[in-house]
Q: What sequence folds into this?
């Protein structure tokens, strides 16, 4: 039996290492030429006009919300089935998160539930492409346009996914899209993230916010002709810069992305074939108009097994299968209860959380490990 199999992990090869070493031997290990090169590569892959790479996915969410003008007394609608960063970024701006329940099949935010939660204070929608399956962006975009709302796609799980023939990140149906490059994501830069947009005004705001609110661009300066040393702080920004070391790794990883996604999809199809024969699981769906990146493979126990999640989870862990649960509904976290979310209840999200287990899925899983995972799960459930 293989040693402990984590639910996700990075793949780094010699080309990645050589790309990093090249930067380490160069004059710039940060704020150098690899940053715009990585941004250009992301734009080429997704079809977006502009990209701003940052230190992590949370930083990307934060500056996207700030660039959108989200502020105190605003409300932002998002999903409860997500990592806390998606929602925390709303609080960082002083605004109030509003949770819309999820769809039973995709576990993505339900557009009908979005409409049910709109009011005069609603400023934006942050749909989360859970597990790499894109949300119904066309419908969300229709709602946003009707009510004059900003759409920020949280695509931390979905680099390499497609919606109706468009790459996630193209911003065809949104104002901005964020990505994460954490080691368990589609590609990695160690830590890292990006915001993509087709809006030049938003792009310039994002650049400022990434770097302390500072610019040295001559055309943007309030005071002209001062001297070559001159810079201006024009907004209250942050040090959310990414390094050239990370950007070089990102460029190298991006070249392998299509292969990574194909391997993820191949493993997911194998799981589908095995688990659909048994009546103890609900397996992930893939709607006909999307192409999932399969960041996760979330199964749900059902029938008489639906209340055995704790038992199944710990039994798998004991056998070296690194399962995880994605996610605890954010409003159930103690901090969110403390600040006024104690009476929130999204029935579909609660049902999903109570039954869900994410089993290992990443490109370097060996066939022996995949068979070990399926065998152990079937024996336990």
A:
């Amino acid at each position: 039996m293989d040693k402990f199999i984590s639910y996700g992990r990075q793949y780094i090869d010699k080309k990645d290492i050589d790309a990093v070493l090249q930067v380490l031997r160069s004059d710039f290990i940060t704020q150098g030429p690899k940053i715009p090169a990585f941004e250009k590569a992301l734009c080429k892959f997704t079809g977006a006009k502009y990209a701003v790479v940052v230190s992590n996915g949370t930083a990307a969410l934060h500056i996207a919300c700030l660039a959108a003008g989200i502020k105190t007394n605003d409300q932002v609608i998002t999903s409860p089935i997500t990592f806390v960063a998606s929602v925390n970024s709303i609080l960082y701006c002083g605004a109030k998160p509003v949770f819309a329940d999820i769809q039973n099949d995709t576990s993505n935010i339900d557009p009908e539930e979005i409409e049910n939660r709109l009011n005069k204070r609603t400023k934006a929608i942050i749909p989360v492409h859970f597990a790499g399956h894109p949300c119904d962006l066309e419908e969300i975009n229709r709602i946003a346009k009707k009510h004059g709302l900003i759409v920020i796609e949280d695509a931390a799980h979905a680099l390499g996914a497609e919606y109706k023939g468009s790459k996630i990140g193209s911003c065809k149906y949104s104002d901005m899209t964020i990505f994460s490059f954490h080691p368990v994501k589609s590609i990695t830069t160690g830590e890292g993230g990006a915001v993509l947009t087709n809006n030049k005004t938003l792009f310039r705001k994002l650049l400022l916010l990434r770097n302390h609110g500072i610019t040295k661009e001559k055309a943007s300066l309030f005071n002209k002709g001062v001297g070559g040393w001159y810079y201006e702080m024009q907004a209250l920004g942050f040090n959310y810069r990414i390094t050239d070391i990370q950007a070089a790794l990102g460029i190298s990883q991006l070249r392998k992305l299509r292969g990574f996604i194909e391997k993820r999809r191949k493993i997911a199809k194998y799981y589908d074939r095995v688990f659909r024969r048994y009546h103890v699981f609900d397996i992930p769906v893939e709607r006909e108009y999307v192409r999932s990146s399969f960041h996760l493979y979330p199964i749900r126990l059902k029938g008489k097994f639906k209340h055995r999640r704790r038992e199944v989870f710990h039994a798998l862990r004991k056998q070296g299968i690194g399962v995880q649960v994605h996610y605890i509904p954010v409003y159930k976290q103690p901090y969110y209860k403390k600040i006024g979310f104690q009476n929130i209840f999204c029935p579909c999200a609660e049902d999903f959380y109570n039954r869900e287990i994410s089993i290992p899925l990443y490109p370097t899983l060996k066939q022996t490990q995949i068979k070990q995972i399926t065998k152990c799960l079937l024996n336990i459930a």
Notes: The chain has two domains: 14-254, 257-380. The chain has 13 helices and 15 strands.
